[in-house]
Amino acid sequence: MNTPKILAVAAFVLFTTAAAWADSFADANAKYQAGDFKAAAAGYRSIIEGGSASVAVHYNLGNTEFRLGHKGKAMAAYLRALELAPRDPDVRWNLHILKSVVQDRIEPAQGGWPEWLSAQAAWVTAREAALAVAASLAALAGFAFLALVFPPVRGALRLPRAAAFLLLLVSGAALYLRLGDEGEPRAVILGREVYARYGPSLKETKAFTLHEGAEGRVLDQTKDWLFLRLSDRNAGWVPRDSCEIV
User: Fold this and answer.
1) With left for phi above 0 and alpha for psi between -120 and 50, is residue 51 left, alpha or beta?
2) From the CB of residue 61, how many other CB atoms can be counted at a distance below 10 Å?
3) How far apart are CA 38 and CA 57, in angstroms?
4) CB-based burial of residue 59 (10 Å sphere; 0-12 exposed, 13-18 middle, 19+ buried)?
5) CB within 8 A of 2, min separation 6: which ones?
6) Residue 202: helix, strand or coil by DSSP?
7) What pLDDT digit, counting tens, does each position of 170-227 carry?
8) Crossing angle, helix 158-183 and helix 126-149, to 10 degrees?
9) How far apart are CA 61 and CA 81, in angstroms?
10) Integer CA distances (angstroms), 166 to 123, 141, 160, 162, 172, in order
11) Which 8-state DSSP code applies to residue 109?
């Protein structure tokens, strides 16, 4: 098959895939508008399982699960939407509303610079931070080239060079923190009431109780258990089947 035919086939596949996604998304939206929330949730999940997840799909799934009274599943869907679009006001607002009605109101521990930096880095995606790092490095390389080829412009390049270096520091820190977050994924409690224990066994002593919608970072895991650290820095082991990893 020659190159034009390959390109034509690829374009056709992309077009039909996009059309099928649009039809499935529109169908799920129609079922949501009709009040058939179970069918709508199934439709959104089918799109996600097909590898066509987007902010809108996760966001709408969150709305649907919230309507069904599934606070844990709604929390997981909103958090996935937030990972894709951390500055989206609708996602942040709905997440705020949901957190205000879950049973566990876990207050973040008071921290210093590390916690503050992590909170700021959460406003960008890892991809955005990586692009900023690449852009700042390219700019610094370009300035160095100009200074080498045209020595008289060195003085004029001081301010833009300082700005590019500052961008490199900030974006590099954001990228490091975002990649660290990906190494410690979130998990959301789905069960109505779940006991966190001091070890990965039902024989271990109960540490505290969590309820549907509570979330934490996964620091360790076994086949059947997850070790979660909450935002207030409490930590414990919970059954894997009681959670959904985001």
Assistant:
1) left
2) 27
3) 15
4) buried
5) none
6) coil
7) 999 999 999 988 889 999 999 999 999 999 999 999 999 999 999 999 999 999 999 9
8) 150
9) 10
10) 18, 14, 10, 6, 10
11) P
Burial class (CB in 10 A: 0-12, 13-18, 19+), 46: middle
Of 54, 59, 57, 33, whose CA–CA distance to 43 is shortest? 57
Q: Give the whole-angstrom CA distance, residue 211 versus residue 209.
A: 7
Measured CA to CA, the distance from residue 230 to residue 208 in angstroms comes to 11
Q: What is the DSSP letter of 204?
A: S
8 A C-beta contact, residue 219 and residue 229: yes
Note the maximum CA span of the chain: 75
From the CA atom positions of the chain, what is the Rg in Å? 23
164 in Cβ contact with 143 (< 8 Å): yes
Q: Report CA-CA distances (Å) from 37 to 32, 71, 98, 100, 165.
A: 5, 14, 18, 22, 50
pLDDT at residue 11, rounded to an integer: 38
Closest CA to 42 of 73, 12, 20: 73
Q: Do residues 28 and 37 make contact, with C-beta atoms less than 8 angstroms apart?
A: no
